[in-house]
């Protein structure tokens, strides 16, 4: 034991043969110093370190007269995550142990900590912590979480365009419709279909068609808000959900998108491709119980744009049910 460490003043117990058992302070200290984990004791009120085993001293050095937050975190005051308040009852008496995990901001290692308030040899209240390094295990857990999140995002993302896919659109869309009903706010749906897209594929090839789809997706991302939901529904079909957008605002959005598409050009292997699109839109009403109700109306408006010559915006307004229904 180094000279800066307070001895553990535990009584020696005599065994049957008269020899001292390992319950002596020296024996207990030998056990603690050989643990592959940090063990330390800090005064509950002053945060002064009263004891640290060899594992801790090898990493954090001398503790004499120093505070736990200064040694373990290189801080200038008690840690925001200090568990002291969790270790005592309302009357100030020691409670049960508290087990938790955290990443030390000084050495960036992950630890599982077992904290408990106990009475020290002089009667004062102290915090006893046993911290085991779990960095390797934690890094594997975090990597697995990242892999799961990446897989979840991939399941909700259209691989070609980076927009939401059809599955994600209906998942998020149902939430947005529910919120619109709950807070009585408008919700607009715009459906969009690229005109003469088959002709692009037949003339320039499917790679050119893919380039057009990526180009259109980029235009959509430029115009939508963070709260909006834009998705590629399949093929050359797209859809946008606009929370808190009424008919006028949604129509303005669709017309701006139409103008942007008309004025844009897709350059592919020396060719200029001029895309075109038709739009249909509607706004949710209180009687819309399902997102599919909006989709039917928006698609009806989209077909009307196609029938009228393409490259335009059409609107379908939900019929108001008769009084009393």
Describe the structure.
The chain has 325 residues and is an alpha+beta fold. The protein has 2 domains: 25-137, Beta-Lactamase; 157-315, Alpha-Beta Plaits (2-Layer Sandwich). 37% of the residues lie in helices and 22% in strands. The chain is built from 9 helices and 12 strands. The chain has helices at 25-33, 54-60, 68-72, 135-156, 166-183, 197-204, 206-223, 247-263, 291-307, and strands at residues 38-43, 49-52, 98-103, 110-119, 125-133, 187-194, 229-234, 237-243, 266-268, 271-273, 277-283, 313-315. The strands form 3 sheets. It has a 5-stranded antiparallel beta sheet with strand order 2-1-5-4-3. It has a 5-stranded mixed beta sheet with strand order 7-8-6-11-12, sandwiched between helices. A hairpin with a 5-residue loop joins strand 4 (110-119) and strand 5. Helix 6 crosses helix 7 (206-223). It is elongated, with a radius of gyration of 34 Å.
Total strands: the figure is: 12
By CATH reckoning, the class of the largest domain would read Alpha Beta
Shape: elongated
Residue ranges: pLDDT <50 for 5 or more in a row? Answer: 9-22, 321-325
**Helix/strand order, N-terminal first:** HEEHHEEEHHEHHEEHEEEHE
Q: Report the sheet-strand fraction.
A: 15-25%
With strands numbered from the N-terminus, the spatial order across the biggest sheet is 2-1-5-4-3
Biggest sheet layout: 5 strands, antiparallel
Number of helices: 9
Class derived from helix and strand content: alpha+beta
Query: What is the residue-averaged pLDDT?
Result: 88
* CA gyration radius, whole angstroms: 34 Å
Helix content: 25-40%
CATH homology superfamily of the largest domain = Reverse transcriptase/Diguanylate cyclase domain
Name given to the CATH architecture of the largest domain: 2-Layer Sandwich
* Structural domain tally: 2
End-to-end separation in angstroms reads 86 Å
């Amino acid at each position: 034991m180094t000279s800066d460490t307070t001895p553990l003043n535990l009584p020696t117990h005599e065994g049957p043969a008269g020899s001292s058992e390992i319950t002596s302070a020296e024996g207990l200290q030998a056990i603690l110093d050989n643990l592959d984990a940090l063990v330390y004791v800090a005064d509950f009120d002053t945060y002064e370190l009263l004891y640290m085993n060899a594992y801790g001293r090898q990493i954090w050095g001398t503790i004499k007269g120093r505070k736990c937050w200064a040694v373990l975190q290189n801080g200038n005051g008690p840690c925001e995550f200090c568990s002291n308040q969790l270790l005592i009852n309302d009357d100030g008496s020691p409670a049960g142990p508290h087990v938790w995990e955290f990443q030390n901001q000084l050495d960036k290692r992950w630890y599982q900590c077992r904290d408990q308030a106990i009475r020290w040899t002089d009667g004062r209240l102290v915090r006893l912590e046993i911290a085991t390094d779990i960095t390797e295990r934690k890094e594997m857990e975090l990597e697995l979480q990242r892999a799961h999140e990446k897989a979840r995002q991939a399941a909700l993302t259209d691989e070609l365009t980076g927009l939401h896919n059809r599955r994600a659109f209906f998942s998020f869309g149902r939430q947005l419709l529910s919120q619109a009903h709950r807070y009585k706010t408008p919700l607009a749906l715009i459906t969009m279909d690229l005109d003469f897209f088959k002709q692009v594929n037949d003339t320039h090839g499917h790679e050119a068609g893919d380039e057009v789809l990526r180009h259109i997706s980029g235009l959509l991302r430029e115009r939508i808000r963070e709260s909006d939901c834009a998705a590629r529904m399949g093929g050359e079909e797209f859809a946008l959900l606009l929370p808190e957008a009424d008919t006028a605002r949604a129509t303005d959005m669709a017309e701006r998108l139409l103008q942007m598409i008309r004025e844009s050009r897709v350059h592919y292997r020396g060719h200029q491709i001029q895309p075109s699109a038709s739009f249909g839109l509607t706004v949710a009403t209180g009687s819309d119980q399902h997102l599919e109700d909006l989709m039917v109306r928006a698609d009806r408006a989209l077909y009307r744009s196609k029938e009228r010559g393409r490259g335009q915006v059409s609107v379908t307004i939900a019929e108001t049910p008769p009084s009393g229904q």
